[in-house]
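Lab notebook, bench 4. The sequencing result for the construct came back, and we need a structural model before the next group meeting so we can plan mutations. Quick request posted to the team channel:

Model the 3D structure of this chain.
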Amino acid sequence: MKSEAKLLNLVCILGALIFVALAVMNALSSPTFFTTDNLFVTMVCLLRALMFAVNPLLYLKDQGRLPIPFQKRKALKAQTAGAGERALPQSAPLLDAKGRAVPPDVRSMVANMKQKRP
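Done. Here's the predicted structure in token form:
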């Protein structure tokens, strides 16, 4: 499975680089770049490059190798902002029947139901 993912990512990166090269070649080879046709071809090439680049970027994000700016700050703010609210237990995540994480509003309802009443 890892070799298949590596091969897929390599093909996607090569495809993205080819489309970026086509966009650059289109920009450099045309005498008048700001025509409708040249801008359309350039945008199509850049959009295709983006489509090919998304898969490797998501793979790197899932593996934890792609640092996402401001993500740690948001998690820290969420923990400090919940000081006035009832804090949910940070044990195992609450999952539905299909194994997906439940939304925050459902988690808060479950936490309310689990509280012991006098």
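Residues 93 and 99 are 10 Å apart (CA to CA).
Will bring this to the meeting.
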